[in-house]
Amino acid sequence: MMPSISRRLALSSVAIAAALAPAAASAVDVNIYTSRQPELIQPLLDAFTDETGLSTATIFIDKGLEERIAAEGANSPADLIMTVDIGRLDAAKQAGVVQPLDNATLEQNIPQAYRDSDKEWFGLTARGRVVYASKERVDADAITYAELADPKWKGRLCTRSGQHQYNIALIAAYIAHNGEEAAREWVTGLRDNLARRPEGGDRDQAKAIFAGECDVALGNTYYVGKMATNETEPEQKEWADAIKVIMPTFENGLTHVNISGVALAKNAPNKDNAVKLMEFLSSDEAQKIYAELNYEYPLEPGIEASELVQGFGELEPDTLPLDEIARHRTKASEIVDEVGYDNGPQS
């Protein structure tokens, strides 16, 4: 049995990609192109190898994953795409670099809201798009997404760029629930409540709360776990300790979630093995491993999240199908630009 291999490759030219393709395809049983850091998925892949005897290789491509596979064409060694966010999964679908898979195991293990209606991608774990709130300066323990646009938060909100895929997905969900005009008013209200121009990542928003620059922020749940357990940069533990997680809700009382997911590459040279890995990834065992590794939530309702994640509070995920949210992403991006969100507060 060949050993598991983890490699990091930067996005390369078409010529280099073509040169790598035959070697990568012949070396292992399943080739995975991923936008996730390989160390975040390697224990999961090791468990698959232990169970099946099939080896895996990961090629890390942070940006341009779809373009890389498209450039490689029919000779691409990619068997699977593992990535995060409905935006990236939908981008792979729209680029035509994945193929549909009719599979009873995946349909049984993955709730319908978290898989593509055309069967071209499947969710694996979930994360909530929540509110980070100052423990010292915010008394509220409940809030709706709509309330974040209330003037009472003026000068107290901070976020990363409105054009970031995490915020685009949330705005797209708001459109799906409330319509375009309501979403435009909401994003305008968020803009006017900003304490500063959007910048940084989700962890930077927690840092800003710790520093007293703002009182509430939008962020993903898993970053709280990553900060709270960060031994390499222990100052992040202070950021995590300065905030509490509030599960904001739409009018239906449910919280927006996004996913990590997997898709079968269009020209997968090891399709049968790739399908076996997809089935394994959807299993209870794998969902639990994957969710605990990344401080996320298993998609199967019967599987408990880790103790640390449970400490964020009860997450009741929105039932809106993610492929419906994906259909509103373009309009969400347009609204962000129309209201000048990334320019910061204007009044």
Notes on the protein architecture:
- The structure is a single chain.
- This protein starts with a strand and ends in a 9-residue tail after the last helix.
- It is built from 15 helices and eleven strands.
- The chain is α/β, with parallel strands linked by helices and 347 residues long.
- It is globular and about 55 Å long.
- Strands 1, 2, 3, 4, 5, 6, 7, 8, 9, 10 and 11 form an eleven-stranded mixed sheet that branches.
- Helix 6 (165-178) packs across helix 7 (180-193), helix 6 (165-178) packs across helix 15 and helix 7 packs across helix 15 (329-338).
- It has helices at residues 14-27, 38-52, 65-72, 86-94, 104-109, 165-178, 180-193, 202-210, 221-228, 235-241, 271-281, 284-294, 307-310, 322-326, 329-338; strands at residues 5-8, 30-34, 56-60, 80-84, 98-99, 122-134, 157-158, 216-220, 243-246, 257-265, 297-298.
- Residues 1-25 have low confidence and may be disordered.
Question: Notable features of this structure?
Answer:
347 residues; disordered N terminus; single chain; globular; 15 helices
User: Helix proportion of residues, in percent?
Assistant: 40-55%
Class computed from helices, strands and strand pairing: alpha/beta
How many individual β-strands? 11
Rounded average pLDDT = 91
- Which H/E pattern describes the elements? EHEHEHEHEHEEHHHEHHEEHHEHHH
Beta percentage is 15-25%
What gap, in angstroms, lies between the N and C termini?
A: 64 Å
Gyration radius, to the nearest Å? 20 Å
- Work out the helix count: 15
Poorly predicted tracts of residues: 1-25
Broad shape: globular
